[in-house]
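Lab manual, section 2.4: Encoding a predicted structure.

Procedure: take the sequence of the chain (120 residues), apply the prediction step described in section 2.3, and record the output as structure tokens. A sample record is shown.
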Amino acid sequence: QVQLVESGGGLVQAGGFLRLSCVASGKFFSINAMGWYRQAPGKQRELVATMGGGDSANYGDSVKGRFTISRDTAKNTVYLQVNSLKPEDTGVYYCWSSIKVSPLLSRPYWGQGTQVTVSS
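Recorded output:
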């Protein structure tokens, strides 16, 4: 069974920074892409950043220039460096991955989420 486990969330003051990590474990063939989404209270889950093959990155408009996604493919891990945090960045950050579980089948997986709270 595939699992995604996040770490690195916490409480930080506005202007501060955090580094989120997510590691994929279990039995699978390969990882197609990994990334992060977030959900603020009362709002829909939104894209933060994803990274696919060739290290191509895709960012949500609200985080461009402040957040940086990176991957360590050897460790099945994705990182999110979050800088210049704003109170509106507060929310639960979920790790996401598209994983090839068999030669012909890929599935999306989600982590349990890690809370990021930014105080003003």
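Check your result against the sample. The CA atoms of residues 5 and 22 lie 5 Å apart.
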